[in-house]
Every structure is written in C-alpha cells, then in structure tokens.
Write a structure and sequence with these properties.
single chain, 223 residues, alpha/beta, 8-stranded parallel sheet, 35% helix, binds D-xylitol-5-phosphate, binds zinc ion
C-alpha cells in the first residue's frame, strides 16, 4: 500500500491572537503535522515567530512540528528550537555556506534534518547532501509571505527532485510549500511530493476540517 500523503497546515495564515486554538483545531481536523514558519527579516523580507511561540505550539498539540527556518545562518538557533520542541528543523540551502554541518548538527540534536530550496535553486544542488537529509522541501513560491500564487514551473522541478531522491535510494520526505490547495495537490503528489504544506487554503477557509479533507481527497487523486 502507498504511504499516505501528509498534510501540514502552516500557522502563518492562522489567527495569531488565537494560535493555541487554531493549532488544536487543525489537530482535531486531521492534520498530520504542524508547519511553523520562522522568518528573520534578513533572509526574507518579513518577521514572524520565534522560540517562545514554538514552545506554546508544542503545548497545544501532540503532532510532529516542523520548523521552517527562513533565517540567515540558521546554525545560530538550532539548539534553541530543538530544546523548544521541534520534531524537524528545515534550513535553507541559500542561508549558510555550511549546509552539511548544519544538517549534521540537527541530527545530532535528535531531530529530523530538512533542507529547503528557493524556486531559483535547482534540485541538483542537494545531490551530495542526500545522505544527510530526512526531508527535502521544494518551495513553490518565493519564501516570505503566505497567500502567494503557486509557481507552475515548480511542478517539473518536484518531479526532478523525486528522480534525484529515488536514484539515490533516499527515503527522505519530499515536501512542497507555497500556494497549494486542492487544485495543485493531485499533480504535486503525482510528481512525487509526500508532504503538502498549506496555509491560506486551510486557515482562510470557513471550515478547517472541510479544507483539510478536500486537500487530502485531491492529494489522493495523485497517488
Ligand atoms: C512561505 C511559507 C509558507 C506559507 C504557505 O514563505 O514558507 O509555509 O505559509 O502559505 P500559503 O499556503 O498561503 O502559500
Ligand atoms: Zn513554510
């Protein structure tokens, strides 16, 4: 049987004044994991959550939490986010010259090691890092903001990333993030994605449960 595709709501589009309630709601509605977007105002032109928010989210759910670090030189903060309850830490290839060392540090901290690629970074960049990866994140928008439009040329890129992982025998998750809703889900899963991150298409919906169910149903069409 095929592994089930995982749905990861991004809290960027949640109501920040009721964050714990929003986390509890997507947990009850069948989310597989929580996606927390950390932005530093330097790597991306926006500032969001820090370690204290992760600690609060950790209290609000028993689901795995992926922290997506859109932060320059993320190695400065890995231990803090690990201590605050992250399950997986995803850093950006473009954010440090010492990617392999940062990934190894994440595993040493006992967490899953994720690596994200901006839209302009080709999958081949990670070829020599595959043994160090538990998750490869192909950004399908330029990071920094929720609610952006899905970049269509990222679809063949996801397929190329899938071939790269399979050729190396990698079991790493292949995650996609940005502009994703039911319209994109089937094709992304068909291209080889195993985790769909969705912010505005879930938290912008009137009914969270329905939004997650619809996304899951669309993803299943691609399996
Ligand atoms: C973008 C973030 C995404 C974002 C997704 O920089 O990494 O996780 O919140 O939001 P939507 O699904 O609205 O594009
Ligand atoms: Zn993200």
């Amino acid at each position: 049987m095929l592994n089930r595709v995982k749905i990861a709501p991004s809290l960027l589009s949640a109501d920040a004044g009721r964050l714990a309630d929003e986390v509890a709601a997507v947990t009850a509605a069948g989310a597989d994991m929580i996606h927390l977007d950390v932005m530093d105002g330097t790597f991306v032109p926006n500032i969001t959550f820090g370690v204290d928010v992760l600690r609060a989210v950790r209290q609000a759910t028993s689901l795995p939490i992926e922290v997506h670090l859109m932060v320059q030189a993320p190695e400065r903060f890995l231990a803090q986010f690990a201590q605050a309850g992250a399950t997986t830490l995803t850093i950006h290839y473009e954010a440090t010259p010492h990617v392999q060392r940062a990934l190894a540090t994440i595993r040493t901290l006992g967490l899953g090691a994720g690596l994200a690629l901006n839209p302009s970074s080709p999958p081949l960049l990670v070829e020599d890092l595959l043994p160090d990866l538990d998750l490869l994140l192909v950004m399908t928008v330029n990071p920094g903001f929720g609610g952006q439009r899905f970049i269509e040329t990222m679809l063949p890129k996801v397929a190329r990333a899938r071939r790269l992982l399979d050729a190396a025998g990698s079991q790493a998750e292949l995650e996609v993030d940005g502009g994703i809703g039911p319209v994109q889900a089937g094709a992304l899963v068909r291209a080889g994605a195993t985790i769909l991150v969705a912010g505005s298409s879930i938290f912008g919906a009137d009914d969270l449960r329905r939004a997650i169910t619809d996304l899951r149903a669309a993803a299943r069409q691609g399996q």
